[in-house]
Amino acid sequence: MLPTPPKVLVVDDDAGFRLIARRVLTRAGYLVEQAGDGGAALEVAEQVSPAVILLDWMMPVLDGPEVCRLLRENPKFDHSQIIMVSAKGELNDKISGLESGADDYLVKPCEPRELTARVRSAMRVYELKRQLAEKAEREALLRRAAAQIRSSLDIDAILSATVEEVRKVCDASRAVIFQLDEPTQQISVRTEAVSSGIPSVASIILAADAAPFSLKVLKKRQSGQIPDLSALPDLEALNQLPEPLRLKSIVAVPIIVGTNHEIEERLFGLALHQCGQVRHWTDEEIAFLESLATQTGIALEHARLYRVVQERNRQLQENVSKLEELARQREEFTAVLVHDIRSPLSVVIGSLEILSAKAESLDLLDEDLGELFTRSRETVDNIITLVNEILDFSKAEAGAMQLDLLLVHPLEIVDDAFEKVELLAHKKEISLGCLKDSWLPQILVDPVKISRALQNLLTNAIKFTSEQGKIRVEIGLVEGTQLEHGRQFLKISVIDNGPGIPAKYLPYLFNPYYQARQRSRQLGTGLGLAIVQRIVAAHGGNVQVQSSEGVGSAFSLVLPLANLEPLESSPNH
After folding, report:
1. Per-residue pLDDT tens digits for 469-519
2. Which residues of 26-61 are buried (b: 16+ CB within 10 A; e: fewer)?
3. pTM for the full predicted model
4. Which of 81, 157, 272, 357 could form a disulfide with 172 if both were Cys (CB 3.0 to 4.6 A apart)?
5. Three-state helix/strand/coil letters over 506-524
6. Are strands 7-11 and 52-56 parallel, antiparallel or unpaired?
7. d(Cα 417, Cα 450) in Å, to the nearest integer?
8. Helices of type H across 150-282
9. Sheet of strand 52-56: strand arrangement
10. Rounded to 5 degrees, what are φ and ψ at 198?
């Protein structure tokens, strides 16, 4: 009875890819099963027990990584080899694919020869694992070897562990990992392990054309053996070696590193030497070497990826350090700038007061001159306010905002903010009012900063509310939503009947570098709202805004509550 061809399961929602893979792999001698989605893949796999599974990453309902995880949870597929297939070839994609449990990663589109080679390599691993399952001792040796090889992210340590394990397991005279240096076209030994009494070949370097067997293994990525070197007189370079080094038999397998072979020393081979007598390596032994070479290749690729990630992390840390230094310099520059602006402004204020007093003493302070002095002082005060906002914003951006937390009643904060803007509202004959819940709890906040935030909202509302308009503050408790479900928050809203804000400008209100404009009238709020947002964020809250043109706007401070008992409310406004 002819043996049943090994089975390959092709899982892909692209019928075209399934058809091509089936034709290629059928011609290669494999029995191919197909599945169009993740659910069908699990059912077919349960029925046919495939040796190799080509698993597409992107599929509806169950994607490749999820199917891979489910397969790996089933002991029935312990020996099945899973090759993740995807058009995504970025570094993080490869890492994610391997971390999901896949044994290999193939990037679409792929050449038929590469597809066949990957499946053939995976099939050899599967067959070796199946055979080793029947031989407990060899299976234990393979697991130990693979574990030791892949336990390191250091390339030299991985290579050393490979040759040491393979020499002991296969009872060879010498195990070497050799490599081809492409620029010089020379083959040299990267590392070796030798049995007692066997000399080293670590210092031997051969021209590539003088070692055709090794070159063929590396270039064609095909395993091979020469059981009796003495029967091949054309291998002159080997026959010219000193007598103690002369080899009787050699077997070599390629070590394939990475999908695109991006590692610097990219062409590796694993070879076993027999020096005392001629030896023919069995198919089982060669399969074991190929499996070990596969594990070594994967470990080398992991080491390469780890080095790439480390280098990127280093660059990222350097960039973070540079940004932190720039932020520090910006904060220092802002502080110096604010100081240099405040000083001359103080002189201007003093000069205005002296001039005003002098004019009054000389009976020159008429209504027009008095109005001029008043407007000049207000202009200077506005400049000082802006300078202070710049300094506050700079500190907030640098994360230097310090909170002096106290337990206070919300109405105390409202009272303080009302007092600060009362004169401004009075000038425009704007009425201020307050509506509140029947009782309110005390809150743990920095009262000065929260009052400042509320004052900014009130000032902004007064600025854009017409004369004899109305502004009210509403205070109440609200329940959190989504991730904040079950938590209570205090909501303080400033509501005006001003012109409102166009919807297209709402996303930019808290951006300090953007000022919305409508015709010639400024609708932006400079740094005021940006400072409000950062003050509230420092308390773990957020700022909400609703606005409708021609109706008005509502800005709300939403602050988390401490688990405290409610206190008696302050008198109503």
Report:
1. 899 999 999 888 777 777 889 999 999 988 888 888 888 787 765 553 443
2. eebebebbbbbbbeebbebbeeeebbbbbbbbebee
3. 0.40
4. 272
5. HHHCCCCCCCCEECCEECC
6. parallel
7. 9
8. 155-170, 212-220, 236-239
9. 31-35, 7-11, 52-56, 81-86, 104-107
10. -95, 125
